[in-house]
């Protein structure tokens, strides 16, 4: 036997489905963008009691909801910690990302993301995707105006694909706690692929990051007389 909590009826509702409020999407600091499971899914979970019978939504209501979300006008958005455990959550999440045509600063920390290569963020200058499951630079969204990119604590094993950012204004890159960080001549390889980069893992570009490998080897040699 269980006791139904008062909030159970809102368990799978988006903020824009709650009546009598005038808040728009770009006024929220960290909104949840997930969409509730189908009635069949709720039935198999034995949670059908949490959701009232859904009414038919007209095209007008769909359009009003889209306008209320107003994602197209977001300049800064934090969509971190979404706990995207089901496919329907991931698809709805990507639906929102496709509408972020004006976002300049975006945080997507700890969302279990694996591939956003189909997403384009044309104005994004700062992107934080720390603590996700990316394994390659090819899985990142298209970000032609990126200046600051943080990829800490993913699973990027090689630097293959990093040269795709050569023609972007990328100034700062964070790759801490990725397997590629332990690659031989890691910093030297990153800066050789990204000549415009000014800072890697919080450390500014150093002279030895630009020197040829044989020169660096010479400096490490010690002569004992």
Supply Rg.
23 Å
Query: What's the name of the CATH homologous superfamily of the domain at 69-205?
Result: Ribonuclease Inhibitor
Helix and strand element order: HHEHEEEEHEEH
* Residues in helices, as a percent range: 10-25%
User: Could you name the CATH topology of the domain at 69-205?
Assistant: Leucine-rich repeat, LRR (right-handed beta-alpha superhelix)
Task: Assign an overall shape.
Answer: elongated
Percent strand equals: 5-15%
* DSSP E strands, number: 7
Give the count of helical stretches: 5
Any idea of the CATH class of the domain at 69-205? Alpha Beta
- Measured between the Cα atoms of the first and last residue, the distance is 84 Å
Topology:
Blueprint: H1 39-44, H2 59-69, E1 76-78, H3 87-98, E2 105-107, E3 126-128, E4 148-150, E5 172-174, H4 186-193, E6 199-200, E7 203-204, H5 213-220
Parallel strand pairs: 1-2, 2-3, 3-4, 4-5, 5-6
Antiparallel strand pairs: 6-7
Organism: Origma solitaria
Keywords: Leucine-rich repeat, Repeat
InterPro entries: Leu-rich_rpt (IPR001611), LRR_dom_sf (IPR032675)
Structure described in brief:
Keywords: Leucine-rich repeat, Repeat. With 225 residues, this protein is an alpha/beta fold. The chain has helices at 39-44, 59-69, 87-98, 186-193, 213-220, and strands spanning 76-78, 105-107, 126-128, 148-150, 172-174, 199-200, 203-204.
Structure description:
The chain is of the alpha/beta class and 225 residues long. It has a domain at 69-205: Leucine-rich repeat, LRR (right-handed beta-alpha superhelix) (Alpha-Beta Horseshoe), CATH 3.80.10. It is 20% helix and 8% strand. The chain has five helices and seven strands; from the N terminus they run ααβαββββαββα. A seven-stranded mixed beta sheet has the order 1-2-3-4-5-6-7, covered by helices on one side. Helix 4 links the parallel strand 5 (172-174) and strand 6 (199-200). The protein starts with 38 loop residues before the first helix and ends in a 5-residue tail after the last helix. 20% of the residues are buried. It comes from Origma solitaria. Keywords: Leucine-rich repeat, Repeat. InterPro entries: Leu-rich_rpt, LRR_dom_sf.
């Amino acid at each position: 036997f269980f006791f139904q909590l008062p909030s159970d009826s809102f368990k799978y509702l988006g903020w824009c489905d709650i009546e009598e409020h005038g808040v728009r999407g770009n006024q929220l600091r960290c909104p949840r963008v997930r969409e509730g499971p189908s009635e069949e899914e709720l039935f198999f979970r034995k949670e059908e009691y949490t959701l009232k019978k859904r009414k038919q939504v007209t095209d007008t209501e769909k359009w009003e909801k889209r306008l209320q979300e107003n994602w197209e006008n977001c300049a800064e958005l934090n969509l971190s910690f979404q706990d995207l455990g089901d496919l329907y959550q991931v698809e709805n999440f990507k639906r929102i990302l496709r509408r972020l045509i004006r976002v300049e600063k975006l945080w997507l920390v700890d969302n279990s993301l694996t591939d956003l290569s189909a997403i384009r963020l044309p104005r994004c200058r700062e992107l934080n995707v720390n603590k996700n499951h990316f394994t390659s630079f090819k899985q990142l969204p298209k970000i032609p105006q990126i200046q600051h990119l943080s990829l800490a604590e993913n699973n990027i094993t090689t630097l293959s694909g990093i040269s795709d950012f050569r023609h972007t204004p990328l100034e700062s890159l964070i790759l801490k706690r990725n397997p590629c960080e332990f690659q031989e001549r890691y910093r030297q390889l990153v800066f050789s692929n990204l000549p415009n980069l000014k800072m890697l893992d919080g450390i500014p570009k150093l002279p030895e990051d630009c020197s040829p490998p044989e020169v660096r080897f010479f400096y490490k040699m010690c002569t004992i007389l």
